[in-house]
């Protein structure tokens, strides 16, 4: 069912869109632990590599070459495209050039793993090579996420040690490489446990995890392209070549622009540009007048204001408001706006929107306004969900526990 959000008259002049239409989330019966209804996702969680492999048989088949286990990639190193200009990859809906070039990167990784396995095991056929390389590449994605990406958002020595312990255990990588998984999850790490651990509840990504992962403020409004033909010297930034509005990098338009930029220039440029801060008043303006796409990656006619839609989705899906969310995590709720932030402008704006009723504060707004722990790009509230889900994701997966072995991955693949 399609519904419409209309900006209140008193603020409509300040909104990029006076109104916009979008589809209501479908509720389905679950009969699961006294929860009468829930929401189905047409995509599987990203740690299975579905962003490059797909979440259904049709897409899985579309991305394969059916030769030596490999996936399709263009000669220019970017994703191939169909007759409508839509990229051929595991997930192309509502994408942008940055995601597209990372998909291409991991397709290259998959194909490189195929080459390595074929050299090592000449008797493996196309299907064997594909399946082993898919497992290996998906595990690489999970590992990068655990010990590299997360610790950039939580940039302290303590969290670096903690996330590495999550993967390798307190005994560390060298010990694990030499002696294998020894002890339980604490000593030997979650990866390599003898069996998955579900704690009596089937694993799923929760609505709360989706909510704290609303991190669009990390995106800039303009992409700074670097001149990769210049030789800047060691430890120096390649010179700025062009500043491209992010609106040009979205969806089908972005795919065309990316083909002009090229794989290497896009990767180098993104690697040298800092992300934005997860703070109030920092939501990218280009996302407030956005062309959404259908599940096939084709543009839909109605534009959306993603900032407004994100707040609406949490309300629609009955995710707790900020204070109630913190109570659920056994964190201290706020009693006044000054408990949340010391920013005078933020407090003034929060009062204009919510009055003095802190219980009405939307979760996303609270997460952006919340005082940050030194070294943390994310809020303490977000951090607690991260901690639970990062651990839960590894220990509930047979491919990181009972099947994390040479028989499943091959010896070379596990290395």
TrEMBL record:
Biological processes, Gene Ontology terms: defense response; fatty acid metabolic process; response to oxidative stress
Residue ranges of the TM segments: none
Gene3D superfamilies linked to this entry: Haem peroxidase domain superfamily, animal type (1.10.640.10)
Organism in which the protein naturally occurs: Thalictrum thalictroides (Rue-anemone)
Lineage, opening ranks: Eukaryota, Viridiplantae, Streptophyta, Embryophyta, Tracheophyta
PANTHER family for this protein: ALPHA-DIOXYGENASE 1, PROSTAGLANDIN G/H SYNTHASE
Name of the protein in its database record: Alpha-dioxygenase 1-like
Key words of the record: Dioxygenase, Heme, Iron, Metal-binding, Oxidoreductase, Plant defense
Source superkingdom: Eukaryota
InterPro entries named among the record's database cross-references: Haem_peroxidase_animal, Haem_peroxidase_sf, Haem_peroxidase_sf_animal, Oxylipin_biosynth_metab
Entry binding sites for heme b: 216
Pfam families linked to this entry: An_peroxidase (PF03098)
GO molecular function: heme binding; metal ion binding; oxidoreductase activity, acting on single donors with incorporation of molecular oxygen, incorporation of two atoms of oxygen; peroxidase activity
């Amino acid at each position: 069912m399609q519904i419409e959000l209309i900006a209140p008259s008193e603020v409509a002049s300040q909104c990029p869109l006076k109104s916009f239409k979008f589809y209501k989330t479908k509720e389905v019966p679950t009969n699961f632990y006294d929860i009468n209804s829930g929401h189905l996702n047409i995509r599987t969680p990203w740690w299975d590599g579905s962003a490059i492999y797909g979440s259904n048989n049709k897409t899985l088949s579309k991305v394969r070459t059916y030769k030596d286990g490999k996936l399709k990639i263009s000669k220019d190193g970017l994703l191939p495209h169909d007759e409508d200009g839509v990229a051929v990859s595991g997930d192309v809906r509502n994408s942008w050039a940055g995601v597209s070039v990372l998909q291409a990167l991991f397709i290259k990784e998959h194909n490189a793993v195929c080459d390595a396995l074929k050299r090592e095991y000449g008797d493996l056929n196309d299907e064997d090579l594909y399946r082993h390389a898919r497992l290996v590449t998906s595990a690489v994605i999970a590992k990068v996420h655990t010990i590299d990406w997360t610790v950039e958002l939580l940039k302290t020595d303590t969290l670096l040690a903690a996330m590495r312990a999550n993967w390798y255990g307190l005994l560390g990588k060298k010990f694990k490489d030499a002696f294998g998984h020894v002890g339980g999850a604490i000593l030997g790490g979650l990866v390599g446990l003898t069996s998955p651990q579900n704690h009596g509840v089937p694993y799923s990504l929760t609505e709360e995890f989706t909510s704290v992962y609303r991190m669009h403020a990390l995106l800039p409004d303009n992409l700074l392209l670097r001149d990769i033909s210049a030789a800047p010297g060691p430890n120096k930034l390649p010179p700025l070549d062009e500043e491209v509005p992010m609106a040009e990098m979205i969806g089908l338009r972005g795919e065309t622009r990316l083909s002009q930029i090229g794989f290497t220039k896009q990767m180098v440029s993104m690697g040298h540009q800092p992300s934005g801060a997860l703070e109030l008043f920092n939501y990218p303006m280009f996302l407030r007048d956005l062309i959404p796409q259908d599940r096939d990656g084709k543009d839909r006619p109605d534009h959306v204001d993603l900032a407004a839609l994100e707040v609406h989705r949490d309300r629609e899906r009955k995710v707790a408001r900020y204070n109630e969310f913190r109570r659920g995590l056994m964190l201290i709720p706020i009693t006044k706006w000054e408990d949340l932030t010391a920013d005078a402008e933020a407090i003034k704006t929060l009062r204009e929107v919510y009055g003095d009723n802190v219980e009405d504060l939307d979760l996303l707004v609270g997460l952006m306004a919340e005082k940050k722990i030194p070294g943390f790009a994310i809020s303490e509230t977000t951090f607690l969900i991260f901690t639970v889900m990062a651990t839960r994701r590894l220990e509930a997966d047979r491919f990181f526990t009972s099947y994390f072995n040479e028989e499943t991955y091959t010896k070379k693949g596990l290395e």
